Amino acid sequence: MPEPVLPHPTVQHHTLAERELLFALPPENARVRPMPLLFIHGAFAAAWMWADNFLPWFAGQGYPSYAISLSGHGKSAGGDDLDHLAIADYVEDVEIAVAWLQERYPRLPALIGHSMGGFVLQKYLERHRAPAAALLCAVPPQGLLLSQFSLLARKPGLLMELNNILRGNEVKLETVREALFAQPVDRAILRRFGECLQLESQRALWDMSVFDLPLLTADSRPPLLVIGAEKDELVPAFLVQATARTYSLEAHLFKGMGHAVTHEQDWPRVAEKVRDWLDEIQRTEDRKVADPSNRLMTEPRLVPCF
């Protein structure tokens, strides 16, 4: 018997301690998972990058899905002081969002970070626990320098164009295409990126390069999923593999895709991989909760409404 067609979840907006939070909740007749998801965006972006595809798609799979705009990004406060914001400030943003979600759901959120967001996730996990964390084209624990040297050797012109964005110059659509996409992409998507991409904190970029690299011990690591894209110009496949080796894991590389795995034509393949992985973790957690010997079982809480 075919699955019933559920309504497409709507992306909504909430302000949390002067930070922008976009979210999509499962349809009323969907089986709601007790573990929400928190998405963390990459450099030069904001929560909007999750709103087109991933937030409504994962909500449709039963996962309450939230995306935070880090300080100085999107509609979050801090833009006037952007260059002084450190990776530690972005970690604090995640802490605030996780604490807010923890009050509203029976389980801690699983964390999903793209590019710089994956780096922020790794720093967050140094001092905090999580049921699961997915790193999508994430800046590796070794930092940004290898990526920059690789791009300089392969495509110096693209590196120069990206540096122009850092200086606040106009974002060229062809630069967006070359940097982020390997598959054919609709011009409307390129225009959306061109309009929404913003300046990034210079201090945060230095933190990711040299000054604040993550150090995760085996004891502090939750289940991790490491995903990369075969044709990623910004975080090349060899760096994704380096991240996986650091954590003694296998890297899952998606062929023919670029850095913007949230918007490439084949983005559903990435989403399905993450969902299947989360579903298995969810089943494991369900078995723990059902075990009478488990003293940590909690009563379900209501899904938040605003």
SSE arrangement:
Blueprint: E1 12-16, E2 19-24, E3 37-40, H1 48-51, H2 54-60, E4 65-68, H3 87-102, E5 110-114, H4 116-124, E6 133-136, H5 145-154, H6 156-166, H7 173-180, H8 187-196, H9 202-211, E7 224-229, H10 237-246, E8 251-254, H11 267-290
Helix pairs in contact: 3-4, 5-6, 7-8
Task: Give the structure's gist in a few sentences.
The chain is of the alpha/beta class and 306 residues long. Helix content is 39%, strand content 12%. The chain has a single domain, classed as Alpha/Beta hydrolase fold, catalytic domain (Rossmann fold).
How would you characterize the overall build of this protein?
This protein has an 8-stranded mixed sheet, with helices on both faces. The chain starts with 11 loop residues before the first strand and ends in a 16-residue tail after the last helix. The chain has a single domain, classed as Rossmann fold. The relative contact order is 0.14. It is of the alpha/beta class and 306 residues long. Helix content is 39%, strand content 12%. It is globular, with a radius of gyration of 19 Å. Helix 3 crosses helix 4, helix 5 packs across helix 6 and helix 7 packs across helix 8. It is built from 11 helices and 8 strands.
